[in-house]
Specification:
Helix 6 packs across helix 8. By secondary structure, the chain is an alpha+beta fold. It is elongated and about 65 Å long. It has a six-stranded mixed sheet, with helices on one face. Strand 5 (about 70-75) and strand 6 form a beta hairpin. The chain is about 35% helix and about 20% strand. The model is unreliable at about 1-10 and about 275-290 (pLDDT under 50).
Length: about 290
């Protein structure tokens, strides 16, 4: 069974894995707006990597293959898995974390040359066409005409995902201890009543605080958090049985039902949605079983 790692805790994020490399921020290519509308590239961190809070003058699109990326923006934690990306508007302060071995892609968009604007972070559907175009734009030997044609198509096909993978954190002193405990250990099964006793308050106060801060009940928020954690584990190749045990579910079927309520599909269907894409442009997780 996978165990929660016991490294240093970072408020509002998953517990930091042992051996994590902490960086000040993603390196931005020098003055990308001077010649190109889009500058793309990729990295493959050999160890879990965390980027301290930072911002960019350019819009940023990040996506991963073979792992996951989480990003913290104010009171939200975004989970990025294969087939999806995260758009970060210019000037928005954010922190990030990628799992070891994940192929980390990023593309920077010059704001004055981008014909659309998302006012806040958005999950982006990383279609095979969009991935191929951005990979094409990462080549440094493209002539100006070829680059302009590819950039124009990127602007045409880049679209928000139907599902936005954002977990809202409470930011409320009355319940922050609950949120931090569950981020540390999503399998924590303490009931509303047990939490109320431990915090010296009432279950009604906790219920009201969760609704005010997140818009959902305590039980719904915990379920959403567990699904975010499940996305990370499943994308790393763990099977549904293992993930359901790690997250504290008595039966895999209960986990699958919870996943379907949040994501609209089963874990297996979610991670194999791109199997029929041509030439393996996208390579969804193949190890998601028992779904």
């Amino acid at each position: 069974m996978v165990r929660s790692s016991r490294g240093e805790a970072t408020p509002g994020m998953w517990r930091r894995e042992a051996g994590t490399a902490v960086r000040r921020g993603v390196a931005l290519p020098q003055d990308p707006a001077a010649s190109f509308a889009i500058v793309a590239g990729f990295h493959r961190p050999r160890v879990p990597t965390e980027w301290a809070p930072h911002s960019h003058d350019s819009h940023e699109l990040v996506w991963v293959r073979g792992g996951t990326l989480t990003s913290r923006v104010d009171d939200r934690v975004f989970t990025v898995v294969e087939g999806h990306g995260l758009w970060m508007p210019a000037g928005v302060v954010h922190a990030g974390r990628a799992t070891a071995g994940a192929k980390f892609h990023d593309a920077f968009f010059a704001p004055d040359r981008t014909p659309f604007a998302f006012g806040e972070p958005k999950a982006i559907a990383m279609t095979p066409l969009l991935e191929s175009l951005l990979t094409h734009l990462s080549h440094t030997d493209l002539d100006a005409a070829a680059r302009a044609r590819a950039e124009a198509v990127v602007f045409d096909v880049l679209r928000p995902s139907e599902r936005q993978f954002a977990l809202h954190l409470p930011g409320d002193d009355r319940i922050d201890a609950i949120a931090e405990a569950l981020l540390d250990d999503p399998a924590d099964g303490r009931s509303l009543e047990e939490w109320a006793r431990q915090l010296g308050t009432s279950d009604r106060t906790i219920t009201r605080a969760f609704r005010q801060a997140t818009g959902v009940t305590f039980a719904q928020w915990r379920q959403m958090l567990r699904v975010h954690r499940a996305l990370m584990l499943l994308s790393e190749g763990f099977d549904v049985l293992t993930v359901s045990e790690v997250l504290g579910y008595a039966q895999p079927s209960t986990f699958i039902a919870a996943f379907r309520r949040i994501m609209g599909t089963t874990p297996g269907a979610f991670f194999t949605a791109g199997d029929d894409t041509p030439e393996g442009v996208r390579n969804p997780v193949s190890g998601v079983r028992n779904s």
